[in-house]
Target: Peptide hydrolase
Amino acid sequence: MSLLSPKWGLGRSLLTLGPILLVAPLIALKQHYTLPEPQTAPINTRTGLPQISEARILGFAKHLSEEIGYRTVGTYEHALADAWMVEQAEEAKRQCERVVRESGRRLECEVWRQQGSGTHRFDMMSKRLYKSYQNLTNIIVRLSDGTDEGKTHALLLNSHLDSTLPSPGAADDAVSVGIMLDCIRVLVDTPDWSPAHAVIFLFNHAEESLQDGSHLFSTQHPIAHTVRAVINLEAAGTTGRELLFQATSEEMVEAYSHVPRPFGTIFANDIFNSGVLLSDTDFRQFEEYLDVPGLDIAIVGNSYLYHMRKDLVENIEAGVAQNMGENTLALIKHLTAPGSAIPTLSSNTNAARMHMVYFGLLSHFFMYRFATAKALYGAMLAGALVLTRAQWTGQARGVLAVLGGIGGALMVPNIVALVTVHGLGRGMSWFAGGHFAAIGLYGPAALLGGLASQLLVPATDEKTVYAATLLLQSSAALGIQLLNVGSAAMFFISGLPIFIALLVNDLLLTTRKGEVSLWVYALGQFLPLMTGTLIMVPTVEVFVPLTGRMGAVPADHIVGTLVAVLGAQALPLVIPFAHRFGARALRRVVLVLGALTVVNMGIYARREVFDAMHQKRLFVLHLENATTHEHHLHIANADGAPGFDALVRDITTEFAGLQAAAVPVVMDDYNSDWDSLYPFSAFLSPYKIALPLDPAYVSPWTAPETSFSLKAVNEVTDLVAGTRSFTLQVRHPGLIWTVIAFDAHVLAWNLDDNPPTEYARHHVKEASFYKADMWTMDLVVKLPPGADGEIAFNFIGLQEGAMWPAKKAVKAQGGPAMILFEALDGWLDEKTGGTVDALLLGCVAGTAVV
Ligand SMILES: *[C@@H]1O[C@H](CO)[C@@H](O)[C@H](O)[C@H]1NC(C)=O
Ligand SMILES: [Zn+2]
Model:
């Protein structure tokens, strides 16, 4: 083909470029979705050496999540999991001792069952919050070479055994528990393996109650001070490669680069640290109380099932556990080997000192320091300036075209969102279809906006716009990196091929000044499209399900904007390309895309938001007020999809009678009905329905010996100092996860040394081992002038025996709450065609003046 004029027309150009450019996202998708072959055998038949066995890992996960079941902290099942874990650890230790007896290897396995109580402050979502826990447990296994030196510096592996309120927790986090157990087996059975530095496996038994288990280990375990680095294994999904989403030291990233299939980017790290994902892991406790760096790794694909009933082994994609297991094993081997960085990882290494860019691309894992990044991006900008000097004069127009393109790409998806939500009343129509559905709706819209905008900006020639694209990408890379944000790499990765393509164009391809060869688009767009896909797909994959639990946010605008921004970043050369064929051709393309977008909106408007595997989350409380003796049903959702009010009306008529009314209630710090979920409750938009009372009902929660009670002991009132000090005793037989909320000016308490120096509202949440049914709190409060200092406490707790479906098997224990839940759950299933997952909790609450 002639590389010069006459230029090919639009159709011929697209037909040539299309197939080439289609390969880029395909390569990216293949990399993103490929998982290793799951192994069943514990020993590799070819090498005769032990290997990670997915079958064994999933066997553990299945036992925990199905045979034992919902392991909510404080329940009977939670105690069963504790006993099971002790047995597994002891068995591992016996195997270890057998191996050592037979081989004389330098290997020692030790086991602890830690049990203890404590308190910690746990602020989240900008709320001040305190935790108090009684007799919670952790199971700990340490592998070392048996020497004191070998135990001086240790690597910590953490996963959690417990599951959250409405979930059997197979992926979250039983798979990680299984992986740690299988890693122990492989290491112990590997001939000659002996760790130069110890590895501590923490099977932590209270994460979902807000990280009490990791707090207990970090603050009280005798070997906690030997920990130099941590690897935390988590899950918020059930598919795909596990993601490294937090890394807080360069040495640990270096270690990670040796795993067989790394999947971690500085980009994920920056998103997580921005807090928009609203999630938090045990990593926080290790950072805060052990002051060590580490890696936070989680399964994140398909997070629709996260904290849902369907977080079951059958829904975990084949290969997920194999992949995570092999990566984890490689990390342990690397970090416990002689010469590892473990002993050099001193305390106070933290995120603020992590100055490293990292990302995986095809089979290579790139890593470089911020200083290198600045030099590199600076050099690219300088090179770009030199290369584009012929286009400097018209640059104002070029820049205007590119910025106009970005503006248009952002605007049209938001118009689409506005029309679907407010015009058609069909918001979140992409939800059940997942990230590809979201990209399918907003991608063409963004492209339409980007191209249509070019009809409005002043006419400019192609090469000037190309130069503007390069200059803006390079400036963004350098500018953002100068702010020490490692995600600037995104602009470097897309800028560099654009730069190289221009260089090739000017030196080799064209002879006429100002000409852009068609090949430049193949060359310059391939890598941005590939890396853009590698960033866009997982990001949208995480955000789409997140909109189902973020509360009544403008989900369509969030997702539309996200697709537009990441799409623009993946297709930067669309804008110069738009100026290649003249306004007439561009108008035709815009027309076609416009029609496509309108048709698309029509198709999406017919889609159902939720389906059986992409369910709506419903939060239902049956609340017995022990003070007023009323019973209420509280219902809330955590998404902005249409149809919630109608569903609540139907539930009300069905379960509270035709006369009953669902009253919308305000969610704030004084809404104590939802304190069990505080501060997540801020996402909920609840209704309250009064339930008719069965005259034959005798409450078990008001009898003196079984009641939920608050009382003050060791009371001292000092009128001269104006203070009252006492120990608040909270008794809660049969109830778990108790919460108290009260207003007072606290001068001192045992929760921390730093209560607010004013009259304020406080929330204290408890979580304890099964049957540990009392906790206390020491308080010194300031007496208000002329008052006796009595305090009104709002209290609430969950009935250990009234959580549906966790306690289905023993439903008779649950009283009226469970009777209602069984009926309501069956009715909901039928009414909504299985598209709703309801968290159904029996609560007892009241007010006590102490
Ligand atoms: C915690 O365990 C100890 C020892 O088993 C027991 O004496 C104590 O009563 C328990 N605490 C609670 C609150 O149940
Ligand atoms: Zn978890």
Observations:
- The pocket of 2-acetamido-2-deoxy-beta-D-glucopyranose (ligand 1) is lined by residues 134-135, 772, 774 (CB under 6 Å).
- The chain has a mean pLDDT of 94.
- Residues 218 and 286 are 6 Å apart (CA to CA).
- The first strand starts at residue 108 and ends at 121.
